[in-house]
Design brief:
about 350 residues; alpha/beta; Udp-n-acetylmuramoylalanyl-d-glutamate--2,6- Diaminopimelate Ligase, Chain: A, domain 1; UDP N-Acetylglucosamine Acyltransferase, domain 1; ten-stranded parallel β-sheet
């Protein structure tokens, strides 16, 4: 498929103010440093303004404050938020170059007679769709996916290869679920008895809202009694663990290798950086931002940025040191006051 477009095509699709020739030909989207004379690039951070003088890009997407500088070197698209414009440009570009084939059900797919699959859904090779499952209009089910009994896949949702959606779990509309994701595995629940573990059957399910994206090899466990819930617009990176009965508010984003223990409630519009860990049965307020590798061991009731991890130790020593650390600033102020008093 030919991918070349003109700047006029870009403006017609996405808007913006064009400085330069509308007929300029664009064959790819590229970073400033590796762009060539057929590339469309963007400058979102003013710190990289110096690259405007050296880039070979045919056109650069910039904010109004940089429009004059960008236009001095060649074509430019002026827009209030270049990074957002870039995001929408990638969506538009992908829709052109990754056009989906006509919907079909692969002959090797195994679909129970009681399952409901929309006429325009696309079902790949060796897919299994169990009894009572539903696949919505325009959904795409990748090769080797398993959709268990009573599970629901919303309209326009795309499952990559090797995704498992457990029984009675529900995924909303326009979601993207990457390869290897498991939705609705049993939560980690066991009762100790006489030196062994008695399994607690996980009787809940998983409910996922609309416009959610889930990265490769992420696991979302079903609830023990109530459901595990992800709100609309949640974004999960690769290798994220969401334990049973966790609830995540709308438009929260969680980066790779984060683990969230059971029954934790996370608010809306939060960001959790990579390799963070959140202890179970906590409440995290809306608009909380957690730095990478941070251990959250108590509830957070105020919006803000939270960081830090405490060194491993035996528990009794760790608790004493943690209590001391919380008072470290006040102790420092007392020491400074004493030093000042003794010096006078």
């Amino acid at each position: 498929m030919a991918t070349a477009v003109t700047l006029a095509d870009v403006i017609a699709a996405l808007g913006g103010v064009l400085h330069g020739e509308a007929t300029t030909r664009i064959e790819r989207i590229a970073p400033l440093e590796s762009a060539d004379a057929t590339s469309l690039s963007f400058l979102a951070n003013p710190r990289y303004q110096a690259q405007l003088a050296t880039t070979a890009a045919a056109c650069v997407i910039v904010a109004p404050a940089l429009a004059e500088a960008a236009a001095a070197r060649g074509a430019a698209i002026e827009t209030p938020d270049p990074y957002l414009y870039f995001a929408r440009l990638t969506q538009w570009w992908a829709a052109r170059v990754r056009a989906l084939p006509a919907p079909r059900i692969h002959p090797s797919a195994v679909i129970d007679a009681s399952a409901v699959v929309a006429a325009d859904a696309d079902v790949g090779a060796l897919v299994v769709i169990d009894a009572g499952a539903q696949v919505g209009a325009g959904a795409v089910i990748g090769a080797h996916c398993v959709i268990e009994r009573g599970a629901v896949i919303g309209a326009g949702t795309r499952l990559a290869a090797h995704v498992t959606v457990g029984f009675d779990c529900r995924i909303g509309a326009r979601c993207i679920v990457h390869a290897g994701v498991v939705i609705g595995a049993d939560g980690f629940g066991f009762a100790p008895h006489a030196g062994r573990w008695e399994k607690i059957e996980q009787l809940g399910a998983v409910r996922i809202g609309d416009d959610v994206e889930i990265g490769a090899n992420t696991c979302i466990d079903r609830g023990a009694l109530e459901d595990t819930v992800l709100g609309d617009g949640v974004k999960l990176d690769n290798l994220v663990q969401i334990a049973h009965n966790v609830r995540i508010g709308a438009h929260t984003a969680i980066a790779g290798c984060t683990a969230i223990a059971g029954s934790t409630l996370i608010g809306a519009h939060c960001t959790i950086a990579g390799a963070a860990n959140i202890v179970g049965h906590l409440t995290i307020a809306d608009h909380v931002h957690v730095s990478a590798a941070t251990l959250i061991s108590r509830s957070i009731h105020k919006p803000g940025l939270y960081s830090g991890v405490f060194p491993f130790d035996d528990n009794a020593s760790w608790e004493k040191n943690a209590a001391t650390l919380r008072n470290l600033y006040s102790l420092r102020q007392r020491v400074l006051a004493l030093e000042k008093k003794n010096s006078t």
